[in-house]
Design a protein that fits this description.
The protein is about 15% helix and about 35% strand. It is an alpha+beta fold and about 280 residues long. It folds into three domains: about 110 residues, Nucleoside Triphosphate Pyrophosphohydrolase, CATH 3.90.79; about 30 residues; about 130 residues, Nucleoside Triphosphate Pyrophosphohydrolase.
Amino acid sequence: MEPFIRVYPPKRPQGKRHVWYVMRGEDLVVDVNAPAEPLVGDPHGPQSITIAQHFPLGTQGDVAVHAAVVAADCELSEGLQAVNLRTLMNHPGVAPDVVAAASNAKQLVEFRTLHRFCTRCGKPYRAIENNWGYRCDPCAFEIFPPVSPAIIVLIHDGLDRVLLTTKTGWGNRYSLVAGFVEPGESFEACVAREVREEVGVEVHQIRYVGSQNWPFPHQVMVGFLAKYKSGDIQIDAEELADGRWFNRDAMPATPPSTAISGQILDIWLRREITQGMIAGFDYHE
């Protein structure tokens, strides 16, 4: 796969082919016959819809990658449909570079459309050239697209059991404990705290697995494995509907492998949790 080279306004991506990630509100506009692909176009826009605002993203090989916005009430012509970005990310045929570009598009569009006035003095921002930030000239305050780190952790007993949780509305699907990192907190400390707060147990042997962009609204999910240490399950009823231990041979419905939660579960199910790819250290209060 060719590397993705980002560009920043006022530069525009150059390429022999041009693809467009077009946002309509929270949804992505796609061709009904290619729902896991961006729209095809030229340097000025996609072939099948008129855009309202352009966001240059970058170049991948000979492909120029763009984002754009249409009005939330824009009626789509025949052959187009709007799909929720979560639906796209769970599509079995979606490529990782499509997920990354669509996530980038969503977050840049939201930042540039929602942050118009300075949060310190209320004056209008101006765009800073060669990045996606804004600057308030009267008070010199600058703001950039936010990224909020959050942990997600698989709790195992070192043998054949894993502690999974579910929330109201998830049906019979269970997943991993997750939560946002607090100010002044390390990732390992966040893992220990979130596990304690949500399911009431203590963990140790906290090991980093990997990370995933998660644009709902602007997170990066940092994945861990942690071994159960002590305590009985006591769920936070405001956050969770249930939490319980499952045996490896009697698993409930779980997230797909397109999500980092599903990928971490796959590592555990394949008994690969001691491989050298996993680093980390114990958290001590």
